[in-house]
Every structure is written in C-alpha cells, then in structure tokens.
Amino acid sequence: MLMPSLFDESFAGKVFDDFFHAPFGFHTVDASGGSMNADVKEFEDKYLLELELPGFSKEDLKAELKDGYLTVKAEHSSENNTKDDNGKYIRRERYYGTCQRSFYVGKDVTEQEIKASFENGVLRLDIPKPDTTPKVEEKHIIAIEG
Prior knowledge:
Blueprint: H1 9-21, E1 28-30, E2 38-42, E3 46-52, E4 61-66, E5 69-83, E6 89-104, E7 115-119, E8 122-128
Antiparallel strand pairs: 1-6, 2-3, 3-8, 4-5, 5-6, 7-8
C-alpha cells in the first residue's frame, strides 16, 4: 500500500518555505513552482536578497513594491523557426516562461531605498532594515482653563 509522504517535495517545500524564511524578517509567496531560487543575507543595516534567474535578461525583469510586499516577476519568450528550401517547416518551437515571487519587507520601506542590480543571471536587491529603535513619546502639555 502506498502512503503519501510528509516529506514529499511538493508538500514539504511549501510547508517549510515560510518557516525557513521567517527568521530573516521575510515572508514569501512563491508562485513560480520553485524556479526562482532565493538567498537572503542579513547585515547590520540591511538584507541582501539574491535571486537566481538564469536565461533571463535585465529587460525581462520587473520589481514592484506595494503594501509592504516586494514582488519580482521574470518573463521571457522566444521563437525558433527552421525551414527547408521549399518553405516547409522542419521544426518550429516557441518558448514562454514566467515566474514570480513576493517577499514581505514591511510597510516602512520605500522603492527609493531599495537598490537593485542584475549580473550573470543573479538579481541582487539591497533592502534596508526597518528602524527598530523605539520612539520616545514627547510630552504634550494640555492647557487647563478656568
């Protein structure tokens, strides 16, 4: 009798994904089926998010910040046509690929603070850490009349 495994890749990857990312302050939503690998490095003042995107060019990438979520989308398409001398297709292939991944970075981060670069198939995003210094509340004197 075959029994489903708790550690099946499709199940375990989804369950434990948020568990392993939560200590870094990021909550992820993966709509890519695992095709956009991410590494998060923590520094004193920032996080460095590195996304592996082999085969994509800078023009194929889009990064958006909305409601505290940083969403990276990669979309690529190509067409390869080969004809014989009579104009009949010998081979005709088309490729379309897209992947998307979202990271919760906090509502205090603005798009101007995030620095992005793309080199050798790796997208690097510098994301500042939120200021965790507690704010000291100022005293406000209320005038009492009478």
